[in-house]
């Protein structure tokens, strides 16, 4: 979230990178669907467990991209009576389902196929050149999809003035993060499959082919865990990033009508959508009409400076109220409450 952006037209929500996210997912979907077919044919022709595991990997990725497209479509729906805060969290839900699908349809199959090959009798490998050719073509296609994901991550990170890894760690856009991690895992998986096929051909032992399949399963499990944890956190209700929280705190504390910000609550309700609830100690000189006018002015200013704000709720409370102070301490701890007070004193 950034300050000092032009405000959108009344009634409109900023679209952010939704169009580019859709393009990134579409590129990944087309690439994975084609790759899945090629790997399946190669796996059946060569009898390679690693190639069959990679085919399952690409099928899982294709299903994941379709779920992510569903997430993008559902989350774009406008707020209505039943969902007054919008459908932004639909993106988090479908991205979580996509992460589960990676494990169920990809990792589990890779484990089963790999263990079967490692414990079974050695099978003669045929048409190894087909596997190498498919792996090479797949690497090029996956690489193109990966480069598109990397390009978007870099653009998003630069727009928010953060590093590449920091953006991936803190982003509220699970679609791009999912594509990036899936494509990264796919490229590593292709190298593992290449090694498994090559060692099988050199040694005549299918153990290496099976081991490559098991390693692919472990790789997919790791990606599924990372993405699942990210989306679970967003679904539960994660606060906005710290820079945004502190910027909101300072903006509120700088208002002449505000003596102190007693409490500040934010929640990510969708990609580029933040809900704000602030408990403020207003100046005692304000009468009821002036207090109402101040709330309206603050709402307008915050929406102008922070376009990602979806809704703003302001509650007047006395700063010395022990109940409010205890809630802040319970939520943020002593150090967090101190940072809040320091920011308020500096901005007041």
Can you characterise this structure?
The chain is mainly alpha-helical and 348 residues long. It folds into 2 domains: 18-236, Alpha-lytic protease prodomain-like; 242-347, Alpha-Beta Plaits, CATH 3.30.70. It contains 10 helices and 3 strands, in the order ααααααααββαβα. A 3-stranded mixed sheet has the order 1-2-3. Strand 1 and strand 2 (273-282) form a beta hairpin. Helix 1 (18-46) runs antiparallel to helix 4, helix 2 runs parallel beside helix 7 (207-236) and helix 8 (242-253) packs across helix 10 (322-347). It is a multi-pass membrane protein.
Write the topology of this structure.
Elements: H1 18-46, H2 49-75, H3 90-119, H4 128-159, H5 164-170, H6 174-203, H7 207-236, H8 242-253, E1 258-270, E2 273-282, H9 288-305, E3 309-316, H10 322-347
Parallel strand pairs: 2-3
Antiparallel strand pairs: 1-2
Which residues sit in consecutive blocks of at least 5 with pLDDT less than 50?
1-17, 344-348
Number of domains: 2
Distance between the termini: 23 Å
Number of helices: 10
CATH architecture annotation of the largest domain: Up-down Bundle
State the secondary-structure class: mainly alpha
| Principal-axis shape | elongated
Question: How many β-strands, per DSSP?
Answer: 3
Strand content: 5-15%
Transmembrane segments: 21-45, 92-112, 127-147, 179-199, 211-228
Membrane topology: Multi-pass membrane protein
Protein name: Cation diffusion facilitator family transporter
Keywords: Membrane, Transmembrane, Transmembrane helix, Transport
